[in-house]
């Protein structure tokens, strides 16, 4: 098992809790709205044989507390956090993997700090503005219904309904029954995702022209990924649409939107291959 070190980094408005495993080139993993750094524990252990794997709780999630919880949510602020974290850890361009909201944040980092990225893998970024016709209407309905259900019935029913519509196992990747502290953290993360992050993601528009411009002028690689079991879901459709916009072929990964949780060994190997292609 690889050595593990946990530390914190003070950034404007928050303190980021992060964990470093292994040795080699830096590989930063950005989680989505389904938990915190712990969702990557499985693939991090496999990848730490080849990389210095960095996982962290994004601001507002679990151990990365906000100074002002009422401050307006900003995806750009999350990308600024990564910029500061990578600056703290390495002077070399890093490998970056982000899934779901984490993929959008990784793309924002690429727009603003392309020199910090060696290779970015964006796994199923839910950029519904890239869809058209019935696909976009369906995706926006699912997103909006998440917020409506939360307001009418509560956070947990909303998350369950959302997960069912995406065909997801609702496990958060932890084993056994959560203790009181873990349960409180899980519920707080759900609330932050549904009430703060999800509306911002639904409204967000990726600046494709900026992304294309910096990508063409930088040495970074961009890979767009989708789960083999996600075909037909709106995050997969968004990944396909983004790949098409960038003139890329979508790279398939094991499992669905949460393949890295439930098929961690296979997912880690596919991720390593994608980083080296």
Structure overview:
The protein has a single domain, classed as Alpha/Beta hydrolase fold, catalytic domain (Rossmann fold), CATH 3.40.50.1820. 47% of the residues lie in helices and 18% in strands. It contains ten helices and eight strands. It has an eight-stranded mixed β-sheet with strand order 1-2-4-3-5-6-7-8, sandwiched between helices. Helix 3 (101-112) packs across helix 7, helix 4 packs antiparallel against helix 5 (155-165) and helix 4 packs across helix 6 (180-203). It holds the Pfam family Abhydrolase_1.
Task: Give a short overview.
The chain is an alpha/beta fold. It has helices at 41-47, 75-89, 101-112, 133-153, 155-165, 180-203, 208-217, 234-246, 259-262, 264-276, and strands spanning 4-11, 14-21, 26-30, 52-56, 94-99, 117-123, 221-227, 251-253. The longest helix is centred in the last third of the chain and has 24 residues, at 180-203.
